[in-house]
């Protein structure tokens, strides 16, 4: 994949026979440029064994090794030293050496097998011995605990014995009396034996005489004797029970005394804790007062902030309206500029056609000194000079305007809006006027009027439609600005939520990791549990994956129940039983260790209930004494 070479293909050797050994060690290991490419190739659709140029190695199982600050080099030679072929004797010697080593290897294998069998045989014995050792240690601790009591009792008995020592004179007298009594007893016993023999003889004779009558009485006597024996046994058992009850009562009284002392201590602690609680309540009240003051200040600042935000929103809205109005005015101004340019072009054309006529009429008026209307009538009646082919009404209007002006010096051009340099009237001489063709000017004026009349009227509906489209555009722009502002707010809120989510998740993840490691080390006595993120840049992309790795040390055994020792009391037996169970639990935890690590091969844990179940089963397994396989 990705055209990366095999490590085997990059090795060059002089002896081609050695390549088989290299392939046996390297197989199809690929060489990647960096760890990112190696991870992409190793965890692809098909698994590969990949090594990077920096020394990191990813196995087929997914485990990664290598790295570090220093890279070890030079472990493999760069060149193969060429050697001359060995002699036949050397080869035979080496073959004999190989055979000897093979025989030694077989012998060692046999010894190894025998030792393994012996280990498997002795392992249960060792475990039983360890159990017996624990039991003997417990017995020893119990006996050591009872030793001071027994020594104290022995000391008291010695004191009682010394206190009860008899007087020697009286003791001798008593011994003499005992000797006399013993002699008399012996003589009496001898006489009693003779009497007993006589009695037995008589009894035998009586039994022979009254054999049938005595059977029923004998049976009754045997029954009564059995009842008497049973009653004696019950009495003995009840005496033992009474002694046990007295002993338990004494222990109960001792416990009551201890509990009273504990109650007294607890009351003292409660009083001190109440004082501390009162101090804490006072400090809490002070803190609450400060907190309320801070909350009030925060509310005031929040209200001020809201007011400022409201004002800012209003200013932004006003700014938007002003921008819209400015845009509308700019559009109107552009339309007016275009309209003014059209008017200027028309005015310039009309100006060029009207200027010569106005100048001509003003000169004629100045020469004749009369009204322009009379001069026109005379020039129309007389044949000869210049004929002016202009419209009489137009000339009359112009003559009236010129008459109102009073003189040629007072004539002015019409002011055109937007024109910066107005055209000045030129003064023509009489010879120039005589040379002008007024018919030609009249003809050109008629053409301009005809052209103006034939021009199509402007479509004012287009202007109305333009205004409607412009208002609709401005409304859409306003709506777009509002939506954009809302989008920016939502985007900002989304970014804040994402940052808060990631921050809280990573904080909780660190706490869970530390607690997991702490709890697992505590319940397994040295085990290790680790949680890692698949992608540190995006912790929510892949989720959390669990993989169980078990290390079995020794054989698994069911939990044994330890019976109480007969020599100790019931309470001590319960304590010792609890100690034995704790010792067995500790040994069992040392036999089995579980490691939870992150791995992309495992099943995705998607729901919160599944996560809780996994943690509950892992943490409670040792407490329940369950030695089954780890849950996948």
What does this structure look like?
- With 632 residues, this protein is mainly alpha-helical.
- Among the domains are: 1-67, Alpha-Beta Plaits; 525-553 and 591-616, no CATH class.
- Helix content is 70%, strand content 4%.
- It contains 12 helices and 8 strands.
- The protein has helices at residues 19-26, 35-42, 88-163, 168-209, 211-368, 372-381, 392-405, 430-435, 438-454, 460-524, 570-591, 608-624, and strands at residues 30-32, 50-52, 57-58, 64-65, 544-545, 547-552, 592-597, 604-605.
- The strands form 3 sheets. The protein has a 4-stranded mixed beta sheet, covered by helices on one side.
- The longest helix is centred in the middle third of the chain and has 158 residues, at 211-368.
- It is elongated and about 210 Å long.
- The two termini are 32 Å apart.
- Residues 364-410, 546-577, 588-608 and 621-632 have low confidence and may be disordered.
Structural key phrases:
mainly alpha, 632 residues, 4% strand, Alpha-Beta Plaits, disordered C terminus, four-stranded mixed beta sheet, elongated
Shape: elongated
Query: What is the number of beta strands?
Result: 8
Mean pLDDT: 72
Q: Low-confidence segments, ≥5 residues, pLDDT <50?
A: 364-410, 546-577, 588-608, 621-632
The helix tally amounts to: 12
Query: How much helicity do the residues have?
Result: over 70%
Strand order of the largest sheet: 1-2-3-4
CATH C-level category of the domain at 1-67? Alpha Beta
Radius of gyration (CA) equals 64 Å
| First and last CA, distance | 32 Å
């Amino acid at each position: 994949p990705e055209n990366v070479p095999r490590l085997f293909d990059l090795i060059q050797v002089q002896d081609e026979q050695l390549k088989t050994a290299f392939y046996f060690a390297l197989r199809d290991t690929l060489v990647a440029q960096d760890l990112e490419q190696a991870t992409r190739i190793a965890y692809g659709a098909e698994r590969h064994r990949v090594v990077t140029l920096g020394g990191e190695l990813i196995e087929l199982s997914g485990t990664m090794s290598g790295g570090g600050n220093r890279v070890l080099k030079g472990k493999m030679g760069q060149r193969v030293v060429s050697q001359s072929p060995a002699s036949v004797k050397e080869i035979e010697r080496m073959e004999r050496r190989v055979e000897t080593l093979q025989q030694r290897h077989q012998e060692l294998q046999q010894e190894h097998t025998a030792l393994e069998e012996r280990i498997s045989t002795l392992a249960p014995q060792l475990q039983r011995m360890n159990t017996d050792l624990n039991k003997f240690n417990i017995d020893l601790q119990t006996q050591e605990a009872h030793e001071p009591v027994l020594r104290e009792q022995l000391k008291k008995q010695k004191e009682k014995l010394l206190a009860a020592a008899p007087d020697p004179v009286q003791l001798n007298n008593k011994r003499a009396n005992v000797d006399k009594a013993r002699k008399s007893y012996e003589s009496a016993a001898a006489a009693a034996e003779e009497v007993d023999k006589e009695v037995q003889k008589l009894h035998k004779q009586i039994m022979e005489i009254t054999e049938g009558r005595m059977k029923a009485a004998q049976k009754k006597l045997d029954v009564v004797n059995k009842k008497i024996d049973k009653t004696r046994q019950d009495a003995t058992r009840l005496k033992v029970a009474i002694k046990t009850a007295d002993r338990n009562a004494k222990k109960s009284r001792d416990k009551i005394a201890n509990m009273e002392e504990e109650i007294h201590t607890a009351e003292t602690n409660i009083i001190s804790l109440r004082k501390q609680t009162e101090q804490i309540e006072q400090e809490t009240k002070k803190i609450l007062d400060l907190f309320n003051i801070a909350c009030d200040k925060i509310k005031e600042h929040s209200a001020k902030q809201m007011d400022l935000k409201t004002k800012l929103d209003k200013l932004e809205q006003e700014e938007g309206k002003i921008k819209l109005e400015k845009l509308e005015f700019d559009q109107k101004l552009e339309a007016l500029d275009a309209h003014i340019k059209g008017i200027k072009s028309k005015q310039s054309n009309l100006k060029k056609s009207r200027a010569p006529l106005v100048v001509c009429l003003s000169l004629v008026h100045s020469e004749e000194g009369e009204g322009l209307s009379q001069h026109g009538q005379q020039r129309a009646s007389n044949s000869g000079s210049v004929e002016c082919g202009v419209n009489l009404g137009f000339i009359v209007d112009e003559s009236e305007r010129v008459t109102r002006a009073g003189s040629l010096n007072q004539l002015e051009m019409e002011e055109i809006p937007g024109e910066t340099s107005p055209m000045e009237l030129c003064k023509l001489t009489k010879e120039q006027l005589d040379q002008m063709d007024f018919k030609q000017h009249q003809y050109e004026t008629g053409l301009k009027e005809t052209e103006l009349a034939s021009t199509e009227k402007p479509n004012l509906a287009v202007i109305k439609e333009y205004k409607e489209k412009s208002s609709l555009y401005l409304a859409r722009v306003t709506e777009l600005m509002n939506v954009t502002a809302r989008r920016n707010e939502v985007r900002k809120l989304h970014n804040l939520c994402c940052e808060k989510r990631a921050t809280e998740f990573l904080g909780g993840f660190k706490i869970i990791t530390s607690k997991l490691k702490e709890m697992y080390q505590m319940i397994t006595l040295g085990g290790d549990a680790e949680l890692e993120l698949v992608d540190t840049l995006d912790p929510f992309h892949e989720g959390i994956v669990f993989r169980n790795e078990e290390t079995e040390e020794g054989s698994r055994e069911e939990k044994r129940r330890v019976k109480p020792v007969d020599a100790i009391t019931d309470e001590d037996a319960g304590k010792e039983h609890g100690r034995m169970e704790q010792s067995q639990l500790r040994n069992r935890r040392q036999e089995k260790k579980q490691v939870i690590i992150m791995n992309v091969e495992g099943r995705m844990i998607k729901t919160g209930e599944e996560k809780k179940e996994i943690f509950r089963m892992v943490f409670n397994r040792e407490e329940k004494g369950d030695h089954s396989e780890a849950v996948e």
